[in-house]
Design goal:
Layout (H helix, E strand, L loop, with lengths): L1 H18 L1 E5 L14 E2 L34 E4 L3 E5 L12 E5 L8 E5 L12 E11 L2 E8 L5 E8 L7 E8 L10 E7 L4 E14 L12 H8 L5 E4 L3 H4 L22 E2 L5 E2 L5 H11 L2 E6 L16 H15 L5 H8 L10 E4 L10 H21 L4 E4 L15 E2 L3 E2 L1 H6 L13 E3 L3 E2 L18 H16 L4 E4 L5 E3 L10 E3 L7 E2 L1 H10 L5 E2 L2 E2 L7 E8 L4 E8 L8 E7 L7 E9 L16 E9 L5 E6 L3 E6 L4 H8 L18
Parallel strand pairs: 1-31, 2-13, 13-16, 16-17, 17-18, 19-21, 20-22, 21-23, 24-25
Antiparallel strand pairs: 1-28, 3-6, 4-5, 5-12, 6-11, 7-10, 7-12, 8-9, 8-11, 14-15, 25-26, 27-29, 29-30, 30-35, 31-34, 32-33, 32-35
The structure holds 2-acetamido-2-deoxy-beta-D-glucopyranose (NAG) (10 copies).
The site of one 2-acetamido-2-deoxy-beta-D-glucopyranose has 4 residues, from loops.
Pathway: Glycan metabolism; L-arabinan degradation
Family: Belongs to the glycosyl hydrolase 51 family.
Catalytic activity: Hydrolysis of terminal non-reducing alpha-L-arabinofuranoside residues in alpha-L-arabinosides
Length: about 675
């Protein structure tokens, strides 16, 4: 009995010693990392643009449609018996917006008739300034009333009278601002425009481009939804890859993303059939993406159309020239001097100053749609043709091919590739060393990545996980560490897709879930993991012993030369007997007593815990501790199974960064009531 007890104790001791990890971080060696290690990617999926980051509150504001998604009165309802119908008038508002809404006032019994809009499944109504406008054609003497009201009780939260400036045969724009007198108790609200039928001559009025914006991120006109933009800014991102994604390719050859139809006044933007089952307005267009870059200090990674549609059709070699010209025009529009033709067009829209553009990606996932023929055409002539033309005119631009060396493309340096792993967490664990073999000539962007399938073999035929989940996030941390260790050859890394409107979505695993109600914005487990890793920059990696991982622990170390701090990032996967791993990190050259801040993330609900927008919970438990280097200069701490940690000698650095960014929303929302500072 006594002997047995002794043996068990000895074994437990032995096990603990075996699992402990002693890491030494050298003070010299290593590599300078990319200056854009982590970023954002925008794809109009899940109403991420319209009804999402694009702050417009009115759904179907300009009756845009296409063969795929016919024009309709979706979102609109009549008030007091007004007759609503779609008309393609012989004098439309614009060439881009041929359809409008005709409102018949056949009864003068009611003092007020009109219409309301449901918004993108509700509207957040608060005591703040809303900016609106609408076009009317017809003759009306009197005032319009624009109001925000409850869809449940019809209670009016705020309204404003807008004097009619109508003229019989002209489209006349009416503008207004509106500040509700109270916050609505829920987001079940509508926006209405009403008017007195007695003032209408001719029996009806025509309306188009009916728009309403709440305050936007950094106060931009036609700007971004504030809480979502602030959640992005809190990731301290360095680049934005846009406009897609599949959205760039379009559903067929007739409907690619056309940059020149997304610029200028909203009335000149026709919108387009998206590839995710809805029409998009293109209110969030090329200039708005560049403003987004300006406002978050992001390097634009502009993806240009490469002649492949999502249905697999592609442009033949003999027909490619106009598309190359179009791409060069787009680049010139962004960065050309105002004296160039496209720079002049930009200046005419109010933007004389060229934007900086250093990264251009040729297409999106050209290895995928219509393969093998679509990919073969990319390898045979499409990539070369674009690459050659861009390098000739803009030798300083870093061209990125949309496949990567891992998709069987030999990418001619100095061009980079783009790798999109959508994986099981175990895949990220098993492929930790994947990037180690990249040479300086294999520069690779990770333009999209995520854990999407649970471990255990369900592949693309199976469903995606319903939400980002904890072990998925730990797998993503291992992956991010694997990119950062190779940060001299990995250009940048971004999760995708980032946004999911819970009222209409096509892809379930997204960094942030949201709906009209800003209180329901949910930062997923993957958001928390990404944020911890992305907000502690390493500008220069440092060699370590052991070099990168032991059986369960994966790590990277380096220096942040901007604030002269040392940083270590680690992710602990499955451990033996689910035991915590004792870790010791010694930075050569740091003395005893040196302070470092340890931030540790674990799940309160095990590997399958997730943040559920319906519950407003957060399973991610974050602990922050200040550690002191011990006798031998080492920081010691325990990492539980399935945990992610960052050790940073810039103590309080993260908090300082937070304070620098002025926020109206707190950085962590997760279902808790959003208090706004005023
Ligand atoms: C530095 O980069 C080289 C290849 O470019 C790689 O072999 C080496 O492991 C890297 N060192 C560190 C510490 O990241
Ligand atoms: C007014 O006319 C429209 C058709 O133009 C009809 O749909 C609507 O019901 C009518 N309303 C009333 C109150 O008669
Ligand atoms: C009206 O215009 C829309 C585009 O806004 C078009 O799709 C539709 O076919 C047109 N309808 C008619 C009857 O011309
Ligand atoms: C709200 O107004 C609409 C349209 O005027 C009407 O049909 C509805 O009955 C009203 N609802 C309530 C709860 O008053
Ligand atoms: C109010 O809106 C929410 C979505 O935000 C929806 O789930 C709910 O059913 C709505 N309530 C009513 C009574 O319509
Ligand atoms: C490309 O050429 C082939 C063969 O000539 C032809 O069948 C095909 O329709 C062409 N594709 C396009 C998009 O023009
Ligand atoms: C956009 O560019 C394409 C191709 O360069 C051209 O065919 C089209 O007319 C342009 N559209 C507008 C609205 O200028
Ligand atoms: C990396 O680049 C080198 C040099 O261009 C090339 O030979 C090699 O095939 C590339 N690696 C991969 C995995 O394609
Ligand atoms: C490091 O991780 C890889 C999986 O990515 C694994 O194959 C290898 O055995 C690990 N190394 C050690 C020392 O555990
Ligand atoms: C890690 O544990 C999970 C269960 O939590 C399991 O699904 C997965 O396959 C394990 N992975 C490895 C590499 O051991």
């Amino acid at each position: 009995m006594g002997l047995l007890k002794l043996t068990t104790t000895a074994l437990a001791f032995l096990a603990a010693t075996v699992n402990a990890v002693d890491i030494v971080v050298k003070s010299k060696g290593g590599n300078e990392t990319s200056s854009i290690p982590y970023g954002l990617m925008h794809e109009d999926i899940n109403n991420a643009g319209d009804g999402g980051l694009y702050a417009e509150l009115i759904r179907n504001r300009a009756f845009q449609g296409s063969k795929l998604y016919p024009v309709s009165l979706d979102g609109w309802k009549s008030i007091n018996g007004a007759g609503l119908s779609i008309k393609n008038l012989s004098t439309p508002l614009s060439k881009a917006l041929p359809s409008s809404m005709n409102v018949v006032v056949n009864s003068t019994k009611s003092k007020s008739v009109g219409f309301s809009n449901d918004g993108f499944w509700g509207m957040d109504v608060r005591m703040e300034k809303y900016t609106g406008s609408f076009y009317v054609r017809g003759s009306y003497k009197g005032a319009f009333t624009a109001s925000l009201q409850s869809a449940l009780t019809n209670e009016t939260f705020g309204s404003v009278k807008v004097d009619s400036k109508t003229k019989q045969n002209e489209w006349v724009q009416h503008k207004f601002t509106l500040v509700p007198k109270k916050d609505a108790p829920s987001s079940n609200n509508t926006f209405a425009i009403t008017f007195d039928p007695a003032g209408v001559s001719g029996g009806s009025l025509d309306f188009n481009l009916i728009s309403l914006f709440p305050p936007t991120y950094k106060g931009r006109e036609n700007g971004l939804r504030e809480d979502l933009a602030e959640a992005f800014a809190a990731l301290d991102p360095k680049f934005l890859r846009f406009p897609g994604g599949n959205a760039l390719e379009g559903p067929d050859l007739a409907n690619p993303w056309k940059w020149n139809e997304t610029i200028g006044p909203l009335k000149d933007r026709p919108g387009r059939p998206g590839v995710w089952n809805y029409q998009t307005s293109d209110g969030l267009g090329l200039v708005e993406y560049l403003h987004w870059c300006d406002d978050m200090d992001l390097e634009p990674i502009l993806a240009i159309y490469s002649g492949l549609a999502l249905d697999g059709a592609y442009i033949n070699e003999t027909d490619l020239a106009p598309w190359i010209e179009d791409a060069l025009n787009e680049i010139e529009f962004v960065r050309g001097a105002p004296s160039t033709p496209m720079g002049k067009l930009r200046a005419s829209l109010g933007y004389p100053k060229p934007w900086t553009l250093k990264y251009v990606e040729v297409g999106n996932e050209d290895w995928l749609a219509g393969r093998p023929a679509g990919f073969e055409s990319y390898l045979a002539y499409r990539f070369q043709a674009f690459n050659k033309a861009i390098k000739k005119k803009y030798p300083d631009i870093q061209v990125i091919a949309s496949p990567s060396v891992f998709d069987n493309m030999k990418i001619p340096a100095p061009a980079a590739g783009d790798y999109h792993p959508y994986r099981q967490p175990d895949n990220f664990y098993n492929e930790f060393h994947k990037f180690d073999s990249l040479t300086k000539d294999n520069l690779t962007l990770v333009g999209e990545f995520a854990s999407v399938h649970p471990n255990g073999g369900i592949d693309w035929s199976g469903n995606l996980h319903p939400f980002p989940w904890w072990i998925g996030g730990v797998g993503e941390a291992i992956f991010m560490i694997s990119t950062e260790r190779n940060g001299d050859r990995i250009l940048g890394t971004t999760y995708a897709p980032v946004l999911r409107n819970m009222n209409r979505w096509q892809w379930s695993v997204c960094m942030i879930e949201f709906e009209a109600d800003t209180k329901k914005t949910t930062l997923s487990t993957s958001y928390h993991v990404f944020q911890l890793i992305s907000t502690h920059a390493i500008t220069h990696t440092l060699p370590t012993t052991p070099s990168s991982n032991t059986s369960s622990l994966f790590f990277v170390a380096g220096k942040n030369e901007d604030d002269d701090s040392y940083v270590w990032k680690g992710a602990n996967y499955n451990t033996t007997n689910h035991e915590a791993t004792p870790v010791s990190v010694k930075f050569e050259g740091l003395r005893k007593g040196q302070k470092a801040e340890l931030t540790l993330l674990v799940s309160s609900q095990g590997p399958f815990g997730y943040n559920d927008p319906a519950k407003g919970n957060n399973v991610v438990v974050t602990t922050t501790k200040t550690l002191s280097a011990g006798e031998n200069g080492a920081f010691k701490f325990n990492m539980p199974e399935l945990s992610v940690a960052v050790l940073d000698t810039d103590v309080g650095g993260y908090g300082r960064k937070e304070k620098r960014v002025e926020r109206r929303y707190p950085p962590v929302l997760n279902g808790k009531a959003v208090e706004r500072k005023r």
